[in-house]
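2024-03-11 09:14:02 INFO worker-7 job=invfold-0412 stage=load source=structure_tokens
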């Protein structure tokens, strides 16, 4: 029978961050992922500066052979309108490629890895869990994303009776010819909202790659919305005339409406498995990293006693950080109710609103400092 101190299911940003902290503290950590890395993940690949800070990422080291695109501006508007462009003096965000970013963080974690192996079963065995019938551990951390099998063990099957964000994207290398055809500034992220304000599309270049996508709080005619968005960008000369591949989609939960059970005896959920993405922007990497850090801190404080009572502080720290969960709050909070269609179109065209509300507050969360690697107890 094999064993480890902590088994983390899922090697995305949540799992690798938690593993990094626990391995640093001397625990025997095993990360199991159903994919062999590097693997791709459906994502725009936009990260905000607190992610770099919380991860103590050495940007010079990271940028060796990987894309780390500085973003210094945003163009904001409604689909069909030119929008307003804003520039920042400092780097306001970064573009990364998930196949590189996730691989880097996982390797750096120093945890033992079992890649290409899905978690299939976990059954209680005395004070421990028996995973896949052969790995015994006192603690399982569920970091398997939206469809995390550990989340399923704790409650209702993921996806049922949950209000979701559905999003699709493509990322592809831009040829020199395509680049000359398009008006694309690598340092400016473009964000355009749907007319009904139920979602937004993005288009941004990072290094030699272009990423376009659209996310909505309902799945209704998502492909049609994307088609319309792409056509409009092509007409404006912002996108190559033909796209090289099909869009890939994924769904995930936004924080306040998520009602997943977060902790139980010897179990804890982090990142998308817990449903933590920011409601206004859909940003999920920062909450994944931060929840990984907070979980690691609670695990270390529990000092080997992983009864539910000892893990519960994790849920209250999440509430302190992201606000109290409200399962009745439908993800319509993607955009505040009161800002509705025609008012929004006018506000969105206002430089002050676009900068201070949309970008600074909703997308960059400039008022919220990075979670330090040692969360105060
Ligand atoms: C189209 C789209 C665009 C997005 N753009 C952004 C963005 O630009 N910026 C941002 O911050 N957020 C973005 N997000 C959200 C972001 O991708 C997620 O919130 C983030 O990846 C969550 O990280 P995680 O570690 O919790 O889960 P994941 O990154 O999903 O990692 C989960 C891991 O678990 C593994 N796994 C799953 N099941 C099993 C199993 N049974 N056994 C073992 N392993 C398993 C998977 O292989 C995967 O490696 C976007 C989402 C979508 C859909």
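2024-03-11 09:14:09 INFO worker-7 stage=emit residues=377
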């Amino acid at each position: 029978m094999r064993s480890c101190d902590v088994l983390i299911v899922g090697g995305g940003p949540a799992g690798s961050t938690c593993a990094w902290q626990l391995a640093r503290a001397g625990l025997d950590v095993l990360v199991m992922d159903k994919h062999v890395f590097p693997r791709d993940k459906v994502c725009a690949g936009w990260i905000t500066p607190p992610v770099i800070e919380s991860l103590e990422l050495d940007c010079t080291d990271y940028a060796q052979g990987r894309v780390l695109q500085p973003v210094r501006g945003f163009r904001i508007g409604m689909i069909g309108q030119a929008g307003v462009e804003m520039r920042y003096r400092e780097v306001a965000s970064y573009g990364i490629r998930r196949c590189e970013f996730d691989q880097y963080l996982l390797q750096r974690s120093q945890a033992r890895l079992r890649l290409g192996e899905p978690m299939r079963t976990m059954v209680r065995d005395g004070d421990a869990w028996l995973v896949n019938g052969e790995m015994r551990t006192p603690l399982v951390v569920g970091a398997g994303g939206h469809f995390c099998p550990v989340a399923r063990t704790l409650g209702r099957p993921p996806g049922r009776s949950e209000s979701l964000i559905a999003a699709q994207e493509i990322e592809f290398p831009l040829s020199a010819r395509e680049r000359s055809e398009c008006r694309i500034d690598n340092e400016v992220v473009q964000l355009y909202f749907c007319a009904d304000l139920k979602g937004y599309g993005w288009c941004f270049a990072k290094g030699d790659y272009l990423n376009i996508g659209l996310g909505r709080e309902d799945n209704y005619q998502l492909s049609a919305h994307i088609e319309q968005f792409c056509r409009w960008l092509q007409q404006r000369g912002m996108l190559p005339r033909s796209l090289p591949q099909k869009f890939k989609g994924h769904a995930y939960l936004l924080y306040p409406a998520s009602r997943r059970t977060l902790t139980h005896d010897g179990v804890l959920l982090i990142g998308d498995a817990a449903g933590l993405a920011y409601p206004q922007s859909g940003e999920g990497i920062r909450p994944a990293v931060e929840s990984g850090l907070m979980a690691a801190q609670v695990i270390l404080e529990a000092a080997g006693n992983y009864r539910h009572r000892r893990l519960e502080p994790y849920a209250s720290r999440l509430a302190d950080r992201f606000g109290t969960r409200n399962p009745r709050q439908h993800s319509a909070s993607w955009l505040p109710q009161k800002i509705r269609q025609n008012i929004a179109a006018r506000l969105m065209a206002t430089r002050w609103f676009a900068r201070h509300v949309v970008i600074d507050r909703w997308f960059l969360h400039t008022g919220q400092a990075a979670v330090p690697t040692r969360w105060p107890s």
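2024-03-11 09:14:09 INFO worker-7 stage=report msg="Residues 285-302 form the longest helix (18 residues)."
2024-03-11 09:14:10 INFO worker-7 job finished
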